[in-house]
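To: structure desk
From: M.T.
Subject: fold request, one chain
Message: Could you run this one when you get a chance? Sequence is below, nothing fancy, just the single chain.
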Amino acid sequence: MIFDDNAMTILKKRYLWPGETPEGMFRRVADYVGAMDSQDVRNEFYEMMNNGEFLPNSPTLMNAGKPGAQLAACFVIPIEDSMESIMAAATAQAMVFKSGGGTGFNFSKLRPAGSPISHSIGTASGPVSFMELYDKVTDVVKAGGGRRGANMGILNCGHPDLEAFIRAKGTGRLTNFNVSIMATDEWMTRAKCGQEPLFDLAVEQAWKTGDPGMLFYDTINQRNTTPWLGDIEATNPCGETPLYPYEACNLGSLNISEFVEQGKVDYVRLGHVTRLAVRFLDDVIDMNTYPLPMIAEAALRTRKIGLGIMGWADALLKMGIRYGSAHSIELARYIWGFVDRAAFEASRELAKERGAYPAFRGEVPVRNATRTCIAPTGTISLIAGVSSGIEPVFAYKHTRMAFAGTQALEYVHPLYRIAMEEGWYDPDVFVCAHDISVQEQVAMQAAFQEHTDLAVSKTINLRNNATVEDVREAYLMAWEYGCKGITVYRDGCLDSQVLLAGEKSFKKPKGNGLPFRRAEGVLSGRTSKMPTAFGNLYVTLNTLSDGTPVEAFATVGKSGADMESNTEAIGRLMSLALRYGAPVSEIIDQLKGISGAQPVWDHDGKSILSIPDGIARCLEQITGEVREVSAGLVCPDCGGMTVREEGCVKCPSCGWSRC
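Reply: Done. Structure tokens follow.
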């Protein structure tokens, strides 16, 4: 395989061991995973990776060969409605992140906010508040010691806290979570008839922020390959692997572009590599060191693997077929049906050789309860230099914000470059994500889902000017077409995003491209005073003649140089935010409720938790806009989680009250 500069940057930063080459990495992985196989098989493992025909998921590439190597990418952690289970799940999440994996949760068993708690005078804070706990664990424990973990948060459509769940990510919270509604057919039928307001709210919120996505409970369980083990209620972080509690899935992907020669698919070679990849992934199950005993037990019970695909858009380009056309959708159905059948036959042959998975029931034994699963292939497709998963090419020239947004990598699609140089570029074939309709994108996902044991990860990419109705159509169409889940993203709906169209697009214009308001001319100002543990706090808000806030000052007396300078710094940052158009209400939301070591009470008996909290209170007095503070904050007295009760934030552990 030939690696471009961006691929080498990613490999060196995340995958290669000291002094290791990419070829050395593939040899290390092949020899470790294939330890139970012959040298000839291990050599074939090496060749299919080195040729770019197949790559396993990132943990396998990174960790194979290490002592205690954890090779799986995704896990589902169950949560019951007890504090013991909630905290045990947080511990399991931390151990998974430490080993390099991601986690999925269904929070539906947690009682709704305001419910009574046995043996306590307090009330429950609800699923969303505990999601914030798991979000904080994610911040603290970096996956595999080098990157932040990912989570899927799921709530069933009938849960009383569904509205709060739908709105949860629109406030800048839960930044380490994807969130999805687990919707039943009954709920979706009402939604289709316009009789489900919370579906309408979810659609609007997804248009604004990309969340929540949708998962379809009945479809997932109607196509569950092991129904005798019960219903499936959760998935991994990207939604493509519906799993039972504590199950893991070992993923890998075929680079379908490598099997297209002179405009045609080499089905003989594709079948051979498919069978080899199934053996490889089955070996991974036995060579894996699982982060918890219950995860090992669940993984070995069903031996689930997920063979997927990447480079689909590239393959279509090589064949001169427009992504989204009727021909492309029918071809997707045919090719993936071929792979699905080959994977099933390979698993059946392995069952003859090694035995069926322990939980097997039926007439035709297979080694693996699932064989196929289409993952997003984010990083491994970058290493292979092809389009990700079954996604269309996002843009033939684009910027990717890599390594958690710390480095911008510029991409020019290799087939685009070759086509331009050799003169076979065709604008009807070289379409980008935003050129493809919602209907075509969902139809493509549904075509692959027909022949996928688990599920299909695909984002329906929308133009910035897409409407709420476009999102509604995508969600309803995905359900009606038999998809197991659906995610949408409207370009530019968030302040930052991973992919940016165009070359050098990451270089923002002077002033960050935002309207900058100068604090010029005669300003009007109001000042508010607030007691704090460090002396009286004074906050001044200055406005232009039209009432637009453009400047803020904050000072505190008798507090020492450090506290005075910190308070002044907050004032300067507020001024900068105001001049770039940030609403005062959002500044209040960011500062209000921040706890400190020495809270005090004002003359009305309300607590001022800290200098930032006091600044927010002052801004409320100046503007007359009082913002609510959510439950789930840390109690300043005992460190426990607070709840909302009788209109006030309280701590059920020690009795502290914000009011």
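Reply (cont.): Residues 326-354 form the longest helix (29 residues). Let me know if you need anything else for the meeting.
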